[in-house]
Structures are given as C-alpha cells and as structure tokens.
Design brief:
- The protein has three helices and no strands.
- With 68 residues, it is mostly helical.
- It has one domain.
- Helix 1 packs antiparallel against helix 3.
- The chain starts with 15 loop residues before the first helix and ends in an 11-residue tail after the last helix.
- The model has no long low-confidence stretch (mean pLDDT 79).
C-alpha cells in the first residue's frame, strides 16, 4: 500500500485508561508506604491505628477504595 505510514493506526486515547490506572496504582502504593511510616501518635491524629495500616498495606493493587 503506497504511502501507508503504518499497518496499525492507534487512537491517541487508546492507552489513556491503562496509563491512568498505572498512575493511580503508583499513587496508592506510595500513600500506603507513607502511612506505614507514620508514628502511632500521627495515626491517632488522623483517626487510624496500626491495625488499619496493616490491613491497608496488604490490599491488592487492583482494590481501589475510591473505585476510580
């Protein structure tokens, strides 16, 4: 096919959903790690305890609590 630039044309937004999910997973991972580093007093200030953090740190990456 003369003048054809590629065999597959990709829509610019074809991978946008995937990249959004990967970025969201990375953010959740970072937040869970930061929560694990907080002191017990700091956790108490935000209404959490060490057991809450332990439970949150064992969640799978596809378990998005905000479901976005």
């Amino acid at each position: 096919m003369k003048g054809q630039k590629g065999s597959v044309l990709l829509n610019k937004g074809a991978f946008a959903g995937l990249f959004h999910r990967l970025a969201r997973w990375q953010l959740l991972h970072q937040e869970r790690n930061l929560l694990a580093t907080l002191s017990d007093d700091a956790l108490k200030d935000i209404g959490l305890n060490r057991a809450d953090i332990e439970q949150e740190s064992h969640r799978h990456f596809w378990e998005d609590p905000l479901r976005k």
